[in-house]
């Protein structure tokens, strides 16, 4: 799987709150660090559980992904999300730092993001390229 395909599937899984589709993007023993100060979610089952939890309060999710920057088995992908979180409109831009195995599944993910209440469209010039 190419990184841009992986990123599009990630975005679609988020928009559809599909923890099974999200989990399928990762190796069985993958790590998913959603917070730099906390331990990562370890393994596909833990990643699915994390997704079920965080997407439960989200609705009307629209995710845009930028063009991945790839160096060997590592990649960085920006994303820009508009959604309702517990009924409140929010804008959530961020980036994923990814490590892939030979099959194209992610074996390690680190996520960084900012949250702002309200809608911010479009993303700033040069975003995602």
Structure commentary:
This protein is of the alpha+beta class. It has one domain: Nuclear Transport Factor 2, Chain: A, CATH 3.10.450.50. It is 23% helix and 43% strand. It has 3 helices and 8 strands, in the order ααββαββββββ. It has helices at residues 3-15, 19-23, 44-55; strands at residues 26-33, 41-42, 58-65, 69-71, 74-85, 88-100, 106-113, 116-117. Strands 1, 2, 3, 4, 5, 6, 7 and 8 form an 8-stranded mixed β-sheet that branches. A hairpin with a 7-residue loop joins strand 1 (26-33) and strand 2. The radius of gyration is 14 Å and the shape is globular. The mean pLDDT is 95.
Number-wise, the strands total 8
Provide the gyration radius in Å. 14 Å
Structural class, from secondary structure content?
alpha+beta
Please tell me the total number of domains.
Answer: 1
Low-pLDDT sequence parts: none
Mean pLDDT: 95
In the CATH hierarchy, the third-tier topology is known as Nuclear Transport Factor 2, Chain: A
Report the span from N to C terminus.
Answer: 20 Å
* Helical segment count: 3
The CATH architecture is: Roll
Helix content: 10-25%
Largest β-sheet summary = 8 strands, mixed
Shape: globular
Strand fraction equals 35-45%
């Amino acid at each position: 799987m190419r990184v841009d395909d992986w990123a599009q599937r990630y975005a679609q899984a988020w928009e559809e709150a599909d923890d099974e589709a999200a989990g399928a993007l990762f190796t069985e023993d993958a790590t998913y660090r959603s917070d730099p100060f906390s331990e990562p979610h370890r393994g596909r089952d833990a990643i699915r559980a994390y997704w079920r939890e965080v997407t439960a309060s989200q609705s009307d999710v629209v995710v845009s992904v930028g063009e991945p920057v790839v160096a060997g088995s590592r990649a960085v992908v920006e994303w820009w999300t508009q959604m309702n979180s517990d009924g409140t409109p929010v804008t959530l831009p961020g980036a994923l730092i990814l490590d892939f195995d030979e099959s194209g599944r992610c074996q390690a993910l680190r996520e960084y993001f900012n949250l702002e209440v309200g809608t911010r469209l479009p993303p700033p010039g040069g975003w995602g390229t």
